[in-house]
Amino acid sequence: MDKLESLALKWALKNAVDHEGKASAGPVINKVLGGCGPQKDMKALGKLVAETARKVNSMSVEEQRKQLLSLWPGALDKKEEKPRELKELPSAEHGRVVLRIAPNVNGPLHIGHTRGIIINDAYAQKYAGKMILRFDDTDPETKPPMPGIYEKQVEDFTWLLGHKPQQVSHASDRIDRYYEVASQLLSLDHAYTCSCAREKQQELRRAGKPCAHRGQARAENERSWREMLAGKYEKGDIVLKIKTDLSHPNPAIRDWVAFRVAKRAHPRQGTKYCVWPMLDFASLVDDHDLGVTHIIRGKEHMMGTERQEYVYRYLGWEYPHVFYWGRVKLSGFDGIDKISKSLFAKEIAAGKYTGWDDPRLPTVAGLRKQGILPQAIREFWLQMGLSERDVSASWQALEAINERMNRQKSI
Ligand SMILES: [Zn+2]
Q1: Tens digits of residue pLDDT in 294-332
Q2: Is residue 317 helix, strand or coil?
Q3: Cα 143 to middle of ligand 1, angstroms
């Protein structure tokens, strides 16, 4: 028997024993290729594996097991797949680490969000610290909080982690505090009000040029800020911007918008406020006030960090340590695009799905209904660890972990 034949036999037997006596060619071919490297004649390999699988599948499971162990004595040893050890966070003091996670409030939590929740929770546990669930609910116009979202997310969290969030914070409860910080920045001349048209602002920003309002007197800024808060302006009339560096290589960092007018009623605050902070602003103030020591988030937030660091410098605050993970390409999770594109609500309304816990959807509630164990989701992400590299993850991988855990549970 040559090397290929013996590899094919070994893996066909293993695959059969793992799957109630039936080996399938696909996974066996992958394993063989893993053992012998790329093959020139894939057709021949396919034929060899198919024949071997046919032979193996004609045997009883007992025979398969016996032959497998004679060729490969350790093949059936139970190997616990250990989640990867989390790498250390710098300056992390036991008992003093504070992390936070702020999922979107305009849609249900889905598999994509669970990575951040689990990694942050794992770090909080590692250092006996805490993770704050922070509701980023300051966008009543374009990302209005979904009805029932607050209770639902706490429920999903609790199921996923096996414990209640240690602290919950609502950004929309802290609007007065954001105004206070904005006033402080105005008094230090690090912010200004701007009533240029949006297109004009974008054009100047791209060109790295100041608008007519950038140089206006502090008293003028403070007066129009008071008028903004008093409801004198409509949506799009005026914004409050943070002064940064107009020659910054990335135009999006140049004098970014921190507050805008939004008069739509908010589910928690009603029409109490007509000026709302942008996400980067609310979140920077909260990280400081809530004592966040480490931020772990997706690398798409790198620009946000850079914007926020200006304000930290202006106010003499210390920015938390930040870590990023790369993008995850999820495959095999049906309906994930619908959820992330917020079409989801429309499809529920149209009767296509029974609700956000429809088991056909990869929402946390849907996965739960489908019988996926929270521990399986945890292991799925922890195996991937924290890396800035982009990774891909498949539904099949999650399902395999879940099946293994279910088997272990029933032993
Ligand atoms: Zn302007």
Answers
A1: 999 888 889 999 999 999 999 999 999 999 888 888 888
A2: coil
A3: 25
187 with 266, same domain: the answer is: yes
Same domain, 169 and 180: no
Quote the ligand 1 centre to 215 CA distance (angstroms): 9
182 plus 263 within the same structural domain: yes
Instruction: Residue 184: give the domain boundaries.
Output: 175-281
Please indicate, yes or no, whether residues 194 and 146 belong to a single structural domain of this protein: no
Compute, in angstroms, the gap from residue 241 CA to the centroid of ligand 1.
9
CATH code of the domain containing 261:
3.90.800.10
Q: Is 363 helix (H, G, I), strand (E, B) or coil?
A: strand
Count of positions (residues) in the chain: 411
From ligand 1's centre to the CA of 59, what distance in Å? 79
Q: Tell how far the Cα of 201 is from the centroid of ligand 1, in angstroms.
A: 7
As residues whose CB is below 5 A from the ion ligand 1, the structure lists 194, 196, 211, 213
C-alpha 312 – ligand 1 centre gap (Å): 24
* 318 part of a folded domain: no
Enter the pTM of the model: 0.78
What residues have CB less than 8 Å from 106, skipping those under 6 apart? Answer: 139, 143, 144, 145, 146, 149, 342
CA of 214 to the centre of ligand 1 (A): 6
Q: Which residues pair with 294 in a beta bridge?
A: 321
- pLDDT, tens digit (0-9, with 9 covering 90-100), for 97-156: 999 999 888 888 999 899 999 999 999 999 999 999 999 999 998 888 888 899 999 999
